[in-house]
Write a structure and sequence with these properties.
The complex is a heterodimer.
Chain A (H helix, E strand, L loop, with lengths): L2 H14 L26 H4 L5 H47 L3 E7 L7 E3 L3 E7 L4 E5 L4 E5 L2 H20 L8 H13 E3 L2
Antiparallel strand pairs in A: 1-3, 2-6, 3-4, 4-5
Helix pairs in contact in A: 4-5
Chain B lengths: L7 H11 L10 E7 L2 E8 L8 H11 L3 H8 L5 H11 L5
Antiparallel strand pairs in B: 1-2
The chains are: A alpha+beta, B alpha+beta.
Chain lengths: 194, 96
């Protein structure tokens, strides 16, 4: 391709993009061209009357840069979406964890009433929630709750006594397997005084 | 999915109306859920105007033998009482 053919090609490209400015560039030496002045200029404007092959190379180089920037912007958009999804997941996990209690294990050695005695210490679970403490005897599903551990344990004592009285006064045929088993355990571990 | 943010009224309404648990009044409200003619699950709930902590709600869910999502469906209506009975028959003891 001759230099004239190349120039014709470049000029045809300039005609195809009519919005680009066709103002002639001021004459400057090569080392006086600031990078910012390249923005928005066509190749013929950037390199008037220069070697057409160099102009084509420059256009190819600029097109590659544009393509790379487009790929980068797509990657950044994808990363932003991933970050938003990750933030949602982390928030969900934090909410889930905030509702899980701190669990400790303790024993109950007394029911706090003169009417009943314990034949053995009871293994109990203390669950400390953000707004409440729950004391449980899992074996018979007895629970006491309060704003503090002593209060929760006291409520558990009362619950054990109440459950004992309630199950003892129920007819055996009224009780399903679970309350029947609970009554059996209570009779083995809790004895009435007097 | 894991939030224990039920209102006392929602849980009380579900237990009293949908599951027909007959609560008796006291310091707290206590009632038995009857399955196949026998008492199976004892529910203990605070009074409506009392404080319902996350531990209390978690304990009610635990007593119900339902997972958190199943309990959500029980309160939110998709899970009927008959569905709940079927779940309990699978999960509770079958022998005396």
């Amino acid at each position: 391709m001759t230099a004239d053919e190349t120039r014709a090609l470049i000029r045809a490209d300039a005609k195809y993009h009519p919005r680009r400015s066709r103002r002639p560039l001021p004459h400057r030496e090569a080392d006086e061209w600031p990078m910012s002045s390249w923005a928005g200029k066509t190749v013929p404007e950037l390199v008037p009357d220069s070697a057409p092959i160099a102009a084509l190379l420059l256009e190819h180089f600029l097109a590659n840069i544009c393509g790379t920037f487009e790929q980068l912007s797509v990657s950044v958009s994808g990363l932003s979406a991933d970050l938003r999804a990750l933030r949602r997941d982390v928030r969900g996990i934090a909410d889930e964890l905030s509702e899980r209690p701190i669990v400790r294990y303790a024993t109950l050695s007394d029911l706090g009433t003169p009417h009943f005695s314990l034949m053995a210490t009871l293994p109990i679970v203390i669950e400390e929630y953000i707004d409440e403490v729950v004391a449980r005897w899992p074996e018979i599903e007895a629970t006491g709750s309060g704003s503090s551990e002593p209060e929760a344990i006291q409520r558990l004592r009362e619950e054990v006594v109440e459950l004992m009285n309630e199950l003892s006064s129920s007819a055996p045929e009224e009780l399903g397997p679970e309350p029947t088993q609970a009554l059996h355990i209570l009779r083995r571990l809790v004895t009435p005084n007097g | 999915m894991g939030k224990l943010n039920y209102t006392p009224r929602e849980i009380t309404h579900t237990l009293e109306n949908k599951l027909a648990v007959p609560f008796r009044e006291g310091r707290e409200r206590v009632g038995w859920y009857v399955l196949d003619g026998r008492k199976r699950i004892r529910f203990r709930i605070p009074k409506l105007h009392a404080s319902w902590g996350k531990g209390t709600i978690a304990d009610i869910i635990r007593h119900s033998r339902l997972a958190k999502e199943e309990f959500r469906q029980l309160v939110g209506c998709p899970l009927t009482r008959w569905d709940y009975d079927d779940i309990l028959r699978q999960r509770l003891q079958t022998s005396d």
